[in-house]
Each structure stands twice: as C-alpha cells, then as structure tokens.
C-alpha cells in the first residue's frame, strides 16, 4: 500500500507531507471545510494532481491529518493498493424522494459481492437518516460485509453538507467505496466516553428520527428546561448534551440533535429514536472523551493479523466542541495505540457508522470516535 498525504490552506496550493511519488489510479480522499469545497477550482486542482485518481470529497466539521486537527483547510489522502482493489459508487438523496432506505439498497446492489471485504461510506449529513441508510445497505444479508463511515459536517453551522465522487462537491450525495481482495484486512470500532445523567424517560411519541414526546410531554420543552440559558443557542448547544437511547435488550446508542422544529415542538436527530425506547441526557469531560478514543483504538486493533497501514478516523463535532483547544488529545490517544508510524486521515462529522464491538451489523452513532484500519 502506497500513501501520499497533503493539506491545503485557504488561497494556497496543496502542501505534501512527504516527497511526491507516482501513484497508479489511486483512491483520493479529500476532506475539507465546506466553503473551500464550494470553490469550483478545487476539483480541477485535485484532478490535475491525480489525473487517473478516483476522487471522493466530503465536507467536515474539522479535518484530521496525522495527529493534527485542522479547521478551514482541505486534507488529501491518496492510496494505491498493491494487491487489493476498490470500486466507488454514488447516489443522490433527491433521486429517491429522500427515502434513505431505498437509496442504501440501490447503492449496495451496485457492488459485486465476490471478495467484497468492506464498504466505507461518505454521506451527506444535513438531511439523511443514517439509520435508514445503513438498514438499506445491509438489506438482504449484506450485514455480513464490513460497513463503516460517516455523515459529512459543516462546522457547527448545520447549514448544508457536500460530498461527491469524480465531480465537484454538491448537496445530497452519498458515496460508497467497496474494498476487494483476499490480501486486505480491514477492521473498525467505535467508542464514546459520554456519561448518562438525570432521570431516564420513555419515548412516547416519535417517527423515525423525529422525537415528539418524552413521558407524554413535548420533548423539546423538556430539553430546553435542562439546557437553561443554553437553549437560545440550539441546535449548536445540543452537541454538548446528546441523548442516550436504549431499546429493550439492545445496547445504548448516542444520538445528537441535528435540528429543532419549533412549530411541532420536536427534535430532529441524526438517526432513529424508536418509540418505547428509554432516553437519558449525557455529558462528558475532556478526559472522558480522550479515554473513549483510546478505547475505540484498542477495540479496532484487537485480533488483527497484520499491522495497520492506514487509519481513517471519524469523530463527532460534539466531541470537538467539548474538547476545544485539547481536541488533538483524542487523535494522539489513537495514534499511540495504532502506531505512530501509521498515516491517519479523517474528519469531524454529524454521525459515525460502525458496528458495536463483537458484532458485524453496523449502527449509526453520534458523539463517538470511529476508526477504520486498513492493511494488505
């Protein structure tokens, strides 16, 4: 596996982290600030650097390269597989009337299953229901194939997110990368570090990812009461207090509030919040989050047969807001576990996709550190 990384500041050219090497038909992951991705010249600039590259773009709430967390930049990781190979497909939510389950099914069917090891998803993050997208992609037994990825970000603005494959980034795109070959070893894991607090309440009215009532009372009113003065900063302030959602017999999943609906007194979350589930507020300290990242890395490296050659990290914008000036600590924790020499790329997101430890089926998470490790 050959890897080349670079970063681009506003109004400047890409700066490569090492000496330029020629790569043959590489996979080029380009994660960056939404405003920079909107620049029509960016796609052409990357295309000129990699004329035969497969270019995948995604907007972020912060870029990860090495042990650094950047803002207002574009980071690029180009990968040439020496034995394995990959295939990239994309769809737009507008083609499916925002039926994310159908989009996932259609996207999944585009990948031949022979020797398919893993699918990595870079999805638009503003309107997609990540839970439905995963359900669609795993339909018909595809849950036996590894699946991970994340929902694109837009800082803490929540205005719009962009993604694309081999074209200028645009709204509504969902990009999936299928990895093939017996030589490839790909593992993934996630962990949060958030702590539940306050009373546990029951979801008495919800529809998919829209939460209307808790214990028979308007959910948004209750949430605002907990936030106090911070309620005026919604939806941004909700990133500091996500929800723990637990169904009977299932592991608790963390959910972030993406937006609020004042007219219906409801909250719109990044993934499903099933009626009858139990809900608690959550909070975390910087040390909790850094420790959670370390736990995620330990889970990702457990049982691997080969040493990692590339790590793609997707962490949540909420974690970044809590950690503030200490955000890089969680990346450093990961680097210590996977190996200081292992190239790291990734971004801060509006949602993370990965299975729970010991399981194959993927789930949508919020406020977690998610790793996907590659080697061949």
Automatic annotation (TrEMBL):
Keywords: Kinase, Transferase. InterPro entries: FIST_C (IPR019494), FIST_domain_N (IPR013702). GO terms for molecular function: kinase activity. This is Histidine kinase. Residues 25-218 form the FIST domain. It holds the Pfam family FIST. Residues 219-356 form the FIST C-domain domain.
């Amino acid at each position: 596996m050959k890897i080349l990384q670079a970063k681009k500041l506003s109004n400047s050219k890409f700066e490569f982290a090492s000496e330029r090497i020629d790569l043959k038909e590489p996979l080029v992951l380009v994660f960056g600030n939404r405003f920079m991705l909107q620049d029509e010249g960016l796609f052409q600039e990357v295309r000129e650097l990699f004329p035969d590259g497969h270019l995948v773009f995604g907007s972020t709430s912060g870029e990860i390269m090495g042990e650094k967390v950047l803002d207002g930049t574009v980071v690029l990781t180009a990968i040439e597989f020496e034995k394995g190979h990959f295939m990239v497909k994309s769809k737009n939510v507008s083609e499916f009337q925002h039926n994310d389950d159908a989009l996932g099914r259609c996207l999944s069917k585009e990948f031949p299953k022979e020797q398919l090891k893993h699918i990595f998803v870079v999805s638009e993050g503003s309107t997609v229901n990540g839970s439905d997208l995963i359900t669609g992609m795993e339909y018909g037994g595809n849950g036996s194939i590894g699946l991970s990825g994340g929902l694109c970000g837009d800082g803490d603005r929540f205005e719009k997110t962009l993604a694309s494959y081999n074209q200028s980034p645009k709204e509504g795109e969902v990009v999936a990368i299928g990895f093939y070959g017996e030589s490839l070893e790909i593992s993934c894991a996630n962990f949060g570090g958030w702590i539940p607090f306050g009373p546990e309440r029951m979801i008495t009215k919800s529809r998919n990812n829209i939460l209307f009532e808790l214990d028979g009372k308007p959910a948004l009113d209750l949430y605002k009461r907990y936030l106090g003065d911070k309620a005026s900063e919604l939806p941004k302030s909700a990133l500091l207090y996500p929800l723990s959602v637990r169904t009977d017999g299932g592991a608790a999943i963390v959910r972030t509030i993406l937006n609020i609906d004042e007219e219906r007194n409801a909250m719109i979350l990044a993934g499903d919040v099933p009626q009858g589930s139990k809900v608690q507020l959550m909070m975390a300290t910087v040390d909790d989050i850094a420790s959670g990242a370390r736990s995620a890395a330990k889970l990702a490296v457990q049982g691997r047969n080969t040493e990692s050659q590339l790590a793609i990290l997707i962490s949540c914008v909420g974690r970044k807001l809590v950690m503030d000036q200490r955000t890089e600590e969680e990346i450093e924790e990961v680097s210590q576990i996977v190996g200081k020499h292992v190239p790291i790329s990734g971004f801060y997101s509006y949602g993370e996709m990965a299975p729970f430890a010991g399981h194959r089926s993927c789930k949508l998470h919020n406020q977690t550190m998610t790793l996907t490790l590659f080697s061949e």
